[in-house]
Amino acid sequence: MEISIEFILLELITLLIFIVSIKKEILTVGGSFSALIVGTIISLCGFEYFVVLAAFFFSSTKATHLHKQIKTKLLGETYLKEKKRNAIQVLSKSLFPTLVCFIIYANYDGKGMNIFNIKSHPSTTTLCKTFLDAFFIGFFESANADTWASELGILSRESPILILHGFKSVPKGINGAISRYGTVCSILGGMFISSVVILCNIFRMGLVSFLKSDNRVFLLGVKILVFGGFIGFIGSLIDSILGQTVQLTIYNVTKECVIEKEAEAEARKNGDELKYYGKDLFNNSGINLITGVVTALIAGYLATLIF
């Protein structure tokens, strides 16, 4: 394996993120080590892949810690538990993209992402690379869209609804509930990741070369941006459907907040009124993993047809 200057720089950044994550208590120690391994493997494929990962990490972290007091009041222990990510939470939103990066590195020698490589008659190899790149990008578009929708959507003034229950209005914090504001945030979350992809590829291509390129390249960039918003929306929709059906939410009506299952017995002992939403089949990490993989597969398939 030939170690490039680019890889060394990316590794130094990964180590810096590792240290900051522990110091600022963004991740647990296990979560930080998981992120270190993920960052190292993804770095092998080139800086475009790494920057997408970093963009997701920083934007989702910022969204999670925004207006902490409001979220603590609405979600209680659930928010305090979720805001500091552990290894399982980290891997639920990065394991499959990491595996895809390993496949890309093994088969394409880490040649990087080239979304502006327009070919009239793409080969099977090119289509496979397009699928893998779109899977990687689509996974993080979905993950970022879900994070923005949940972490920013909860700040909306309107009450969210459950689309599978006759658009019934429910309290904030219920898994699977959506609002107009949260839906817009999910679309913007997907577009944010796709815009990062576009900027990275312009940097790799060279700004002068990009400006001198024909209109097809510019239109392709616009198409990728819109595609990112669409994938973000699809990911958020899948997450919503799963969240309101196969993920349990316990809402304490008396205290007007979501509680963890561990606190159910104590709440009942205190005489609090509780409401239950969904089935207890998957936790949040499981929902994130399923949503990410399904959305990424959709993104990969559609990308081979569109791009």
List the helices and strands and how they pair.
Layout: H1 5-23, H2 29-43, H3 47-64, H4 68-75, H5 77-82, H6 87-92, H7 95-108, H8 124-153, E1 161-162, E2 168-169, H9 180-205, H10 207-212, H11 215-243, E3 249-252, E4 257-259, H12 264-269, E5 274-277, H13 284-306
Antiparallel strand pairs: 1-2, 3-4, 3-5
User: Count of DSSP E strands?
Assistant: 5
**Based on CA inertia axes, which overall geometry fits?**
globular
Identify low-pLDDT runs. Answer: none
Beta-strand share of residues: under 5%
Mean of pLDDT? 90
Sketch the major β-sheet: 3 strands, antiparallel
Helix content: 55-70%
Radius of gyration: 20 Å
Whole-Å distance between the termini?
A: 32 Å
Name the strands of the widest sheet in spatial order: 4-3-5
Number of helices: 13
Structural class: mainly alpha
The sequence of SSEs as H and E is HHHHHHHHEEHHHEEHEH
Total domains, how many?
Answer: 1
Tag the structure with descriptive keywords.
307 residues, mainly alpha, 3-stranded antiparallel beta sheet, 13 helices, 5 strands, globular, DUF92-domain-containing protein, transmembrane
